[in-house]
Every structure is written in structure tokens, then in C-alpha cells.
Design brief:
about 120 residues, alpha/beta, 5 helices, 5 strands
């Protein structure tokens, strides 16, 4: 299992990496452009990510734009994408699902919430 964490908050990134690394390999990016570049590079190597977690409010490119570009790049065999953000308003949630996210978690998040979402997406047992 391969995971990409795209998160500009070091505390959230560390927590996600701690949880996800139990289930597979984790790569990290601290802004949207670097995250998108990692998705492109992984696809070019034919080693796509199984899951990408995206914060919405990030420098250089926000999570909504990264999500839309990931979904355009990888029409088939697209990674699952879970938005992990402090934005819990209806507008941001709807925008994320319209752009193709597979899940939405509102910060602060706990290990159990992440693992529940991974099970719902059939990424872990």
C-alpha cells in the first residue's frame, strides 16, 4: 500500500504518517504543487499511490485544485483521495465531493477516524 500525505501543518503530517505507516509506505509533501508533482512522478514510474490525503488550505496550490488535477491526470486507476482539513462548511465539503474526493475528515482528527475511513474505502481490513 502506498500513501501520499499532502499537508502543510507538521503536527498533522506527523500524526498521519504515524497512522498510515502501519499499513504501507508513506511519502509526504508540504504544499499542493509538490504533492501534485509526487502523484505525477509515481504514475510515470507505474507505482501510483493507493491513497492521497489532502489539506485544503495549503501554500502554492490549494487542496481543491490538487484534487481536480489528480482526477484529470488519472482518469483510470486514480488513487483514493481523502480531504483532511479544518474547513467543515457545506460549501467546501460539496466542492470536494464534486471534484472527486472519496472522503472528508475535519480536523482535529484521531487515529480511529482515519482507520475507519480506510476501512470504508476498503484500503485496510
Amino acid at each position: 500500500m502506498r500513501f501520499l500525505i499532502v499537508e502543510d501543518d507538521p503536527i498533522t503530517m506527523k500524526m498521519l504518517k504515524t497512522v498510515l505507516s502501519k499499513y504501507g509506505e508513506c511519502d509526504c509533501a508540504n504544499n499542493g504543487i509538490d504533492g501534485l508533482d509526487k502523484v505525477i512522478e509515481a504514475g510515470a514510474r507505474n507505482e501510483p499511490y493507493d491513497l492521497v490525503t489532502l489539506d485544503i488550505m495549503m501554500p502554492r496550490m490549494d487542496g481543491h485544485d490538487v484534487l481536480a488535477r489528480i482526477k484529470r491526470l488519472r482518469k483510470t486507476n486514480s488513487p483514493k483521495v481523502v480531504m483532511i482539513t479544518a474547513l467543515g462548511d457545506k460549501k467546501n465539503i460539496q466542492k470536494s465531493y464534486v471534484r472527486g474526493c472519496d472522503g472528508y475528515l475535519i480536523k482535529p482528527i484521531e487515529r480511529e477516524a482515519i482507520e475507519t475511513k480506510l476501512r470504508a474505502l476498503e484500503l485496510i481490513d
